[in-house]
Request: fold
Amino acid sequence: MQERSEKMTHVETHTDSQTPMPMALGALASAVMVLVFAALVFIPAGRMDWTLGWIYVSAVGANVAITWACLLRWNPELIERRMRFQKGTKTWDKVWAVLYTPVMIAIYIVAGVEARDSVSSLPGAASILGLLIFIPGSTIVTWSMVVNPFFEKTVRIQTDHGHHVIDTGPYSYVRHPGYTGFVGWILSTPLILASSWALVPALLAVIGIVIRTALEDRTLHAELPGYPEYATRVRFRLLPGVW
Reply:
């Protein structure tokens, strides 16, 4: 789930010299991802008759399927690159991932334990609000991945694929729209699952995303040609008018 690193870059695509990942392998990876989310939701709950859990897993499954279909249509090479870790990942990003992953997992553990013990204090309307946040958040992430062929899992300057600043689509509004959308995904999770205590690790996870955004933005300023000029045109990192 770790959100994935955004390289505000562009490279000419040579479809005649690159072989996209086979459709079956991409579909298998998507199915495995949904199963992982299902395990994160239902194992801590200790039961399968959790309606909100099924709603959440269904929403995630729909988003994964839509994202895979969109990438297969408009950005197939990214599917393969996101299946593996690339050389050149920044050391600080590796440390960040080690610290961040348990925080994300904690959201599901806490929500599941609340469901198991039936101690949630959030009203049913919270799930509706969560879906209203999840849908645009996940849509922004998908849109960012379609537009940016360098939306890899880790932060690195992709000299092996060429660099050119992306300033179209959601990147014309904020410099890191994928993170913006992922923040919506994070905050929607405890709401959909009606877990009040899961809001605690969710807020910590959002802080982690803000930290990674700042570190990646600094890296791009220092190492990506054209990025400082892009930053003068698109002033905000995550939220227009705020930061």
Notes: The chain is about 60% helix and 0% strand. Residues 91-117 form the longest helix (27 residues). The CA atoms of residues 49 and 77 lie 39 Å apart. Helices lie at 23-45, 51-74, 76-81, 91-117, 125-147, 177-192, 199-223, 227-233.
